[in-house]
Design a protein that fits this description.
Layout (H helix, E strand, L loop, with lengths): L9 H34 L4 E6 L2 E5 L1 H16 L4 H15 L26 H4 L2 H12 L10 H9 L11 H11 L7 E4 L11 H12 L21 E5 L10 H15 L6 E6 L2 E4 L8 E2 L4 H4 L3 E6 L2
Helix pairs in contact: 2-3, 2-5, 2-9, 3-6, 3-7
Length: 313
């Protein structure tokens, strides 16, 4: 009777198969890990803005954030309630995706796709975000009880759109953006600068001019040190009191300060802003991927309650 053939050789094969599977698994984990690392590391390499508050997130292009902050500043200059701003932002999101478009249906233009032929202004005026926003608010405030109306109804009475229900899908995002741009959610807005992006020299005179144009006389930057009533050739920082001219109710100064600070961050690309600081927080273009960080401004400098906007040199 012959002896059965030995079978020990099967075990090395099984062991080899398991080893190959383990190695393949490690390779796949390595690839997945590298992919995750690549995504995280390269997120800050692209210019963009993000609003995060109450568990919600909204991503914007720099131009969208800047235009939204202009709409918010105009609303503040007119002392309009948050609801007015939310209606305006949702309308612009639907009409132009918060972009200042030089084209549209028929002769429609700008942030709200307003038509020169319908009396919104000349093409040049409509392409000015401040003019376009004021025109929208002029129409909105004429509507009795607009703040209590459904957003679609209020927006439609101003716009007379062919698709009035389309505004509704933007209400949640518009409300989130409103909470950041009015300062109700401190530090909710962050904009990142693309890695390696060359930044031209900023101009504090331009910052002052734009602040005055968008916020109006309620915002009055302090004169530059060393020259009463104006800037110097080497001035790099604009200091803006957080409290509006004429005094403020307790607590409003902090909210106004954050409104100004986040306006500056939203405009950091077009105004060549390098640093924004308010109270014990600061935003720096050089490490914008980290968002708002603890301020390196001295306690004595922070005591005045000013928002400091520093441009690139």
């Amino acid at each position: 009777m012959s002896e059965p053939s030995p079978t020990p050789e099967r075990h090395p094969r099984r062991h080899g198969r398991r080893l190959r599977l383990a190695v393949a698994g490690l390779v796949l984990l390595g690839i997945a890990g590298y992919g995750a690392y690549y995504v995280v590391e390269n997120r800050a390499q692209h210019a963009g803005c993000t609003v995060e508050a109450d568990g919600n997130t909204l991503d914007l292009e720099p131009q969208q954030a800047a235009n939204a902050s202009t709409i918010a500043a105009v609303a503040t200059s007119r002392s309009l309630p948050e609801r007015a701003l939310t209606i305006a932002l949702a309308t612009s999101m639907q009409e132009s995706m918060l972009r200042n478009l030089d084209h549209g249906d028929r002769d429609s233009l700008g942030l709200f796709q307003q038509r020169p032929s319908q009396g919104w202004g000349t093409p040049q005026q409509i392409m000015d975000p401040v003019h376009a926003t004021n025109e929208f608010f002029d129409g909105l405030v004429k509507i009795e009880g607009y703040s209590r109306l459904p957003l679609t109804v209020a927006a439609q009475r101003v716009q007379k759109s062919g698709f009035p229900q389309a505004y509704a899908k933007h209400e949640t995002d518009a409300a989130l953006l409103t909470s950041a741009l009015t300062g109700r959610q401190p530090g909710a807005l962050n904009c990142t600068r693309a890695s390696g992006e060359a930044v031209a020299t900023g101009d504090t005179a331009q910052v002052r001019k734009q602040l005055a144009r968008e916020f109006g006389p309620q915002v009055a930057p302090r004169p530059a040190e060393g020259r009463a009533g104006g800037g110097t050739a080497r001035e790099r920082t604009v200091q803006v009191p957080s409290a509006p001219a004429g005094g403020t109710a307790e607590g409003d100064g902090k909210r106004r300060g954050w409104e100004l600070a986040q306006w500056a961050v939203a405009h950091s690309t077009d105004l060549k802003v390098e640093k924004v600081s308010f109270q014990d927080k600061q935003w720096r273009a050089a490490d914008s991927g980290k968002g708002w960080q603890k301020s390196d401004t001295s306690a004595a400098e922070r005591a005045d309650g000013d928002v400091r906007i520093t441009v690139a040199q």
